[in-house]
Amino acid sequence: MGKIILVGNGDVGSSYSFALVAQGIGQEIGIIDLDERKVQGDVQDLAHGLAFIGPKAIYSANYTDCHDADLVVITAGAAQKPNETRLDLIKKNAAIMKGIVSQVMASGFDGIFLIASNPVDVLTHYVQKLTGLPTQRVIGSGTSLDTARLRNSIGEKVGVDPRDVQIYVLGEHGDSQFPVWSHANIGGLQLHEWSALHPEVSKVNFTEIAEKVKNAAYEIIEAKGSTHYGIAISLARITKAILQDENAVLPVSTHLEGEYGYHDVCVGSPAIVNQSGIKEIIEFPLSEKEKEQMKSSIEQLQEMQDGLAE
Q: Which CATH architecture group holds 3-140?
């Protein structure tokens, strides 16, 4: 496996293709965007680094190139404008998604979709309905970035490599997300055990850290207009897990089929990811508070899905 078609060459898409090249992920990267001139410029620019990375085919693609792709990654979509409701944005991006997906499927594509366009959970669900593909082959970036942000923030605060902080953010990639504190650990020690060994950690307000992480996108957008590096690296990580058949546990947007007591809704949850897509959803045994948070998050997503269907 190794052929990736990227649809959408804006800030997120171009950052994603750079992350793929820099990390040596994939053997073939085709880029589709309405701005073909920018695509041509990016293709040339990316290719100039291959002498330091290794051979890779990078090119300006069209939808017919999707027919034998292993993975189609969609980052295209409109950003929310001032005074625009979330439902307005959903309907606008759903229309964009429908146009893209119909052309991808017309090519004979039979691989895996990876969706990053927002609101990602609702649009991942929508793409699966449009395509009729098995649910395990339509994946959203979900809470992968939120989880990475939280692990990094906790790692910085307690002085530990963020890769050794194990905590997941579940639910919507949005305001109703929540961290699963009941299963959080640092180096295998639960937070209270780590705090007992490191008294200074007992002063850390983890809830405050999680709230800041949840609002990080707003802060970044205010500072520079968009968030794209973090999500690009998150997408590259998911891509690597798929192409290299890793069976990696990653927090992605996945279709619930009874997990957490819900059906026919996409939500961020840890799942085992390999070359077949989602091998298995990992359903955390949640605390009572976390169950309520998951219920609230899923109900908000269902409401948005229903609004899109109207």
A: 3-Layer(aba) Sandwich (3.40)
